[in-house]
Specification:
single chain; alpha/beta; Enolase-like, domain 1; 3 domains; seven-stranded mixed sheet; five-stranded antiparallel sheet; binds NADPH dihydro-nicotinamide-adenine-dinucleotide phosphate; redox-active center; Pyr_nuc-diS_OxRdtase; glutathione-disulfide reductase (NADPH) activity
């Protein structure tokens, strides 16, 4: 397959989820492939995102479980938590996974460069550390995203704050933590650090966290943060951060001041295209630096594609993987297909967690008019003996005209696991009757998804 005019058939920029999948599949299809990664193989997901975050979620739940175990007859002596010991174990596992990514690529025959690649022109890249220049027939941009931070003009004292990458570098547990933002990252870390024993304050500029999710899910998460002991401040932003003798002091837009040890900014992410040389290759970017692509992940330049977070489509690992796989199959495997961005299941690892697939009630009403809603809220069986008052909330959004289930939304223990399976049914176009005809699995929380029979009627109707 190799086009001898170039060093490689495919050059992938970025060793994250999307880039690694694309490189491996293209190489297995017989292409001559190279990949450059400037930091560590595995990208955000493996190195400083989903994977280490989920380990932190697991770690942070133990304290509560130890306390609750008394209801089941256990008595546990003095307990303590050692953050630095945990972080050593976490980094060892991340290291192991990162090495597997590297090995899998090399085993597939991909040339891996531990280097930063930047465009010289549409077919040429310069490797920054080595100074070497390489050419490729096709180039895939898979450089992902990075946390966005306001500038020092926008937020004086920003240099004292950390972003989500910084969380994985903290080897001691702060006593107090102040988090800005109300998205996935802010609410997940708020629960993690509250669970580990820190005093957490979350400051959100809006009214209810998790904009974009179903309103009742948002409310449940918002209230859940408070129940977990997080102080939630809304309609507020930071005005300045100052170093004090005992830590940091943040002045808020309300004029109030909050003393803290760590300030975590979780106010969104941006595409990683700074200084990549997209202009030299002629690749068009959107306003915030995202690479503009079509449904086949093609940029405006005929030999250049982009997948994953850098495109600003849906910033989720499995989406990047599928986009990368589709690109490689299409361009090198003679099996054209494209990623379908509808009905992507997603989870927010709050405690309890959120799992959701399909559209929200508000979106369904706006798009389809008449909608049937089924919902339930209950204390899961496990909590009956341990005194935990946490409830599980479930909601089905159904199109009235044909009874198709448009959305399944759950807040509760194992919501992510439930939704991954429910997503198959939603993706297949299941109706409410299909859910009704599915036999329950007892005793479980998930059985409630197939036993909701009474349509919700708004009060006063
Ligand atoms: P999000 O876009 O989810 O949230 C950003 C938050 O910051 C919002 O609450 C937003 O408010 C607020 N914000 C934005 N700009 C400002 C500002 N200037 N001042 C104050 N607040 C501001 O971003 P995240 O960084 O949390 O996550 C990025 C993406 O990464 C997610 O969208 C998701 O796709 C992915 N991710 C997925 C996870 C998972 O699958 N579990 C976990 C973590 C991340 P507003 O709502 O008003 O816009």
């Amino acid at each position: 397959m190799t086009d001898t005019a170039y060093d490689y058939d495919l050059f992938v920029i970025g060793g994250g989820s999307g880039g690694v999948r694309a490189g491996r599949i293209a190489a297995q299809a017989g292409a001559k492939v190279a990949l450059a990664e400037e930091y560590r193989m595995g990208g955000t997901c493996v190195v400083r995102g989903c994977v280490p975050k989920k380990f932190m979620v697991y770690s942070s739940t133990y304290g509560k479980h130890i306390k609750l175990s008394a209801g089941y007859g256990w008595s546990v002596g003095d307990v303590s938590y050692d953050h630095s010991a945990f972080m050593v174990a976490l980094h060892a596992e991340v290291e192991r996974l990162s090495a597997i990514y590297d090995r899998n690529l090399k085993n597939a025959g991909v040339d891996v460069f531990d280097d930063r690649a930047e465009f010289v022109d549409a077919h040429t890249l310069r490797l920054k550390k080595s100074g070497k220049t390489v050419t490729a027939g096709k180039i895939l941009i898979a450089t992902g995203g990075r946390p966005w931070m306001p500038s020092a003009d926008e937020l004086p004292g920003i240099e004292h704050a950390i972003d989500s990458n910084g969380v994985f570098e903290m080897d001691t547990l702060p006593k107090r933590m102040l988090i800005a933002g109300g998205g996935y990252i802010a609410v997940e870390f708020a629960h993690i650090f509250a669970g580990l024993g820190a005093e957490v304050t979350l400051v959100y500029r809006g009214e209810t966290v998790l904009r974009g999710f179903d309103d009742e899910i948002r409310l449940a998460v918002h209230e859940g943060l408070k129940e977990a002991g997080v102080r939630v401040v809304t309609k507020c932003t930071f005005k300045s951060i100052e170093k004090t003798g005992g830590g940091l002091m943040v002045t808020m837009s309300s004029g109030n001041e909050i003393d803290t040890d760590v300030v975590l900014m979780a106010v969104g992410r941006r595409a990683n295209t700074d200084d990549l040389g997209c202009d030299k290759a002629g690749v068009k970017l959107a306003e915030q630096g995202e690479v503009i692509v079509d449904e086949w992940s093609r940029t405006n330049v005929e030999n250049i594609w982009a997948v994953g977070d850098v495109t600003g489509r849906v910033a989720l690992t499995p989406v990047a993987i599928r986009e990368g796989h589709a690109f490689a199959d299409t361009e090198f495997g003679d099996k054209p297909w494209k990623m379908d961005h509808s009905n992507i299941p997603t989870a927010v690892f709050t405690q309890p967690e959120v799992g959701t697939v399909g559209i929200s009630e508000a979106e369904a009403r706006k798009t389809f008019g008449e909608i049937d809603i089924y919902k339930t809220k209950f204390r899961p069986m496990k909590n009956m003996l341990n005194g935990d008052q946490t409830r599980t909330f479930m909601k089905l959004v159904v199109r009235a005209s044909d009874q198709r289930v448009l959305g399944v939304h759950v807040v509760g223990e194992d919501a992510a696991e439930m939704i991954q399976t429910a997503a198959i049914a939603v993706k297949m176009g299941a109706t409410k009757q299909d859910f009704d005809q599915t036999c329950a699995l007892h005793p479980s929380s998930a059985e409630e998804l197939v036993t909701m029979r009474t349509k919700w009627v708004p009060e006063g109707v």
